[in-house]
Amino acid sequence: MTVVSPDTIFSLQDNGLEAAALELFRYQYRENDLYRAYTDALRIAPASVKSILEIPYLPIQFFKSHTVVSGTFEPELLFESSGTTQTINSRHLVKESAIYTRSFMTAFEQFYGPVDDYVILGLLPSYLERQHSSLVRMVQEMVTRSDHPESGFYLYEHDKLYHQLRALEARGQRVLLIGVTFGLLDFAEQYTLDLRHTIVMETGGMKGRREEWTRQEVHAFLQERLGASVIHAEYGMTELLSQAYSKGNGLFATPPWMKILLRDENDPFQLSTGKGAGVINVIDLANIHSCAFIATEDIGRIHANGLFEVLGRLDNSALRGCSLMVS
User: Fold this and answer.
1) Which of 78, 163, 225, 266 is the most exposed place for a label (fewest CB within 10 A)?
2) Number of other CB atoms surrounding residue 246 within 10 Å
3) Mean pLDDT over residues 8-37, rounded?
4) Are 44 and 317 in contact, with CB atoms under 8 Å apart?
């Protein structure tokens, strides 16, 4: 049995996901010992799975307690989640770095156009100070590919960032300012701007660094202080190799090889792809060599137009860097 190829995955149209997902499910059942044991424990026969609603979704906590791999390989990358000294971090072994790069570059350019149109400014304090961050890896590659000398990272150099943004705005240069939430809030508390050519994109991440705000509060504050008409957002996590993007109002869209489903909080095997609220399950076909079917601990809502929003976290979830709580 052969694995679904990256070429197939990243050229999918929206209506091709289910067939590819079922093929990848069968491969991962065969090649991923943990996933096979989990599927068998649920007494699910792979031959009986005919729909993405019938695929078993691996609880995300297994990335903290087990090695989640399909096949045997030496990983080119190791991604590790952010956390506190009291938490156990998730670990994601990535067989081929090129798959991760292709996933995030293809998705970004589908939503925003060529990355070299932008100066990329990364505001990622604490993430830059630790190893194995998938977010830092992504932004670093975007900085490199943007091929603008002004592109780069800012740790706590808020004054330098402020003057750089003013200079770029003055000449009408398109900019992507991508930052963890607490970093953007810290910056916006110190400076006001009138950003007309800059996309401000938050990636989540309070990490206990400051009082939790709702997403609406965060976006309203950043809009007021930075002069941005909307705040964009990225939805990703250590356990996934793909990202969803929001161009405003916290409503996210996925690339064609990624899909959001909702499970009933009281019956985790009751799944839906339609309008409603529940706990988020993710299909990420870029996770060829780990597990493409993940049951997260994020609460979400799918809207009639197919976009989704993240409402918060399950009450018993560990504090994680990607959380943005709502009241």
Assistant:
1) 266
2) 24
3) 95
4) no
